[in-house]
Design brief:
The complex is a heterodimer of chains A (300) and B (269). Chain A is mainly alpha-helical and 300 residues long. Chain A is 71% helix and 0% strand. Chain A has a single domain, classed as MetI-like (MetI-like fold), CATH 1.10.3720.10. In chain A, helix 10 runs antiparallel to helix 13. The longest helix of chain A has 42 residues. Classes of the chains: A mainly alpha (300), B mainly alpha (269).
């Protein structure tokens, strides 16, 4: 893309690696963070993998043995492909809605807000300092059976007279959309912020309509933000179970609900481990595929 | 009028989206004044009362859970901010073996679903015989783990944008490396460190999914709400939610005012 090359910042006068020295200090500084993440982020993945290969007959009382029982994966898939596919579907729809409304908000802040930019940015983040669970419970009230949303929808016959929103996919997707919206807005904003206004002006000077200028200049330049935002929204959304639990019914169970129950209620560590590994693999595959497709490898 | 709307349509739509983001917060504030004593299980506004604010700690276990969350948040923020800032300096200012791998490992927690991180950590604790000792310390370990990446990323971006000529100038004026660091580098990086600390606290205070898997019998504030949601939530939790919103608004707005004032001072000087 020729357009991206134009906006690249000029190479710094000092080479970026100048002043970087390979010394003991570097190792000492990184050591605590490396050890913490190694012990409590990397090693746990091995434990999870081990779990997924447990003998399924083990229990909390008798202990578990790694028996390379690969059938766990097959069982997890055949028992729980419903919630798994549902999670991907709900997260996908919510991400798409987030992309549309998040782009509008990010664009308004980056391009139209002038000196209010920083204040608006703060206002985007501020509501999320109120507990996630409390805000989701508030949606339960707003979308509740005698709330004004349901009453209005019934009045205009979008919903039948006994129709409801709670315990439907609509409520769960609405909750997910709301809860993960800032993860979409902030990366898109960061990309739009860097777009050189002169390029858009140039497009206008060359008789591009504002819509065409947006499609040919602004949108392509904001793609890194769009890709980053969709990933940062989709990934936590696919693993979420709070919205499904509070706003949905057992018919809206997502894979997070299943994993949580298998670990804490059923104590079926083998199935829970296998299902977690499957979810992680699917997400990693989607991330790699998506980033390749959109040609933004430099994000990774 | 019509042309004004047409010209500002994006801004208007953007503000509507912003308004939408505040709907649940408005409900939380409203419900903090709700008198639910007559119908405890009915989660909807019934009548006005100050009682939730005056009797904040009446529901048993509520204030205890808030205290646990505050302590967890403070400790996790302290640890994650210190070792994360050190890590950010190492990554931006130093070269070492495994630097690329370290960048990747720091990125991964932000790209992993919480349920997977939480369940792996639980798998580790159980496998290493700590399954019976889940509680405050295991939650703290988890919180520091997921806050670290955010601290490193925030401080790194601040550090990368820093003008190294300023440090060079200090050295030219015979400042020792320690003096240069504490008088020049650190004050310049400090806003990034502060931002990272605030982010860590809010991530820790609000976390539910990872915490719930590794908490044992310990009850944090989000876990209290989760437990109460099954029986009927005491309206006092909305008071805590309102206070959180007010505190965060005050903190970020005063930060904004301060930085504007400082910018003006520099402009005048």
């Amino acid at each position: 893309m020729a357009a991206t090359e134009v906006t690249e910042t000029p190479a710094p006068v000092v080479a970026p690696d100048a002043g970087k020295r390979r010394s003991l200090t570097g190792y000492v500084l990184i050591l605590p963070a490396a050890v913490w993440l190694g012990l409590f982020f990397v090693v746990p993945f091995y434990s999870l993998l081990a779990n997924s290969l447990f003998d399924p007959n083990g229990s909390v009382l008798t202990g578990y043995k790694v028996t390379y029982h690969f059938a766990n994966f097959w069982h997890a898939l055949s028992d729980y492909h419903g919630p798994l596919l549902r999670s991907l579907w709900y997260a996908g729809v919510a991400t798409a809605i987030c992309l549309v409304i998040g782009y509008v908000l990010a664009y308004a802040i980056a391009m139209k807000a002038g000196r209010w930019k920083n204040v608006l940015l703060v206002l985007v983040v501020a509501p999320f300092f109120t507990s996630f669970l409390l805000r989701t419970l508030s949606w339960k009230l707003i979308l509740g059976d005698n709330g004004w949303v349901v009453n209005t929808l019934q009045a205009v016959h979008v919903l039948g007279s006994n129709g409801r929103l709670l315990a439907t996919p609509v409520a769960v997707i609405a909750g997910i959309t709301y809860n993960f919206l800032p993860f979409m807005v902030l990366p898109i904003y960061a990309s739009l912020e860097k777009v050189d206004g002169r390029l858009i002006e140039a497009a206008g000077d060359l008789y591009a309509s504002p819509i065409r200028a947006f499609g040919k200049v602004t949108l392509p330049l904001s793609m890194p933000g769009v890709v980053g935002g969709t990933l940062l929204t989709f990934i936590p959304a696919a693993g979420d179970y709070i919205n499904a639990a509070l706003l949905g019914s057992p018919n809206q169970r997502m894979v997070g609900n299943v994993i949580q129950d298998l670990f804490t209620t059923t104590g079926d560590y083998a199935a829970a481990g296998a299902l977690s590994v499957i979810l992680m693999v699917i997400i990693l595959a989607l991330v790699v595929f998506y980033v390749r497709k959109s040609g933004t490898e430099e994000l990774l | 009028m019509v042309s004004w709307i047409r010209r500002n349509i994006v801004l208007i739509l953007g503000l509507l989206v912003l308004l939408y983001m505040y709907i649940p917060n408005a409900v939380v504030v409203l419900m903090s004044f709700n008198d639910s004593s007559k119908h405890r299980n009915l989660y909807r506004f019934q009548s006005f009362t100050w009682h939730n604010w005056t009797g904040l700690c009446d529901p048993s276990g509520l204030c205890h859970s808030v205290m646990i969350s505050v302590w967890l948040g403070l400790l996790a923020t302290l640890i994650a901010t210190v070792i994360g800032t050190m890590g950010a300096f190492a990554l931006v200012r130093h070269d070492f073996h495994g630097r690329g791998a370290m960048n990747m490992i720091l990125f991964l927690p932000m790209a992993s679903p919480e349920i997977v991180m939480g369940s792996s950590l639980l798998a580790l604790f159980v496998a290493s015989g700590f399954g019976g000792q889940l509680g405050f310390w295991t939650i703290l370990i988890a919180h520091v783990m997921f806050c670290l990446s955010f601290v490193v990323v925030t401080v790194k971006s601040r550090l990368a944008g820093l003008d190294e000529n300023l440090e060079q100038a200090a050295m030219d004026l015979y400042a020792t490396p320690a003096q240069t660091f504490w008088r020049v580098t650190f004050p310049l990086v400090f806003p990034g460190v502060l931002g990272a600390a605030l982010l860590s606290f809010s991530l820790s205070f609000d976390d539910f999914i990872i915490t719930n898997l590794n908490a044992g019998q310990t009850v944090t504030f989000p876990m209290y709400i989760w437990g109460a949601a099954q029986r009927g939530v005491p309206m006092q939790v909305n008071v805590i939610g309102t206070m959180m919103l007010l505190i965060s608004l005050v903190v970020v707005i005063s930060g904004e005012v301060l930085s504007r004032r400082r910018a003006k001072m520099y402009a005048a000087a």
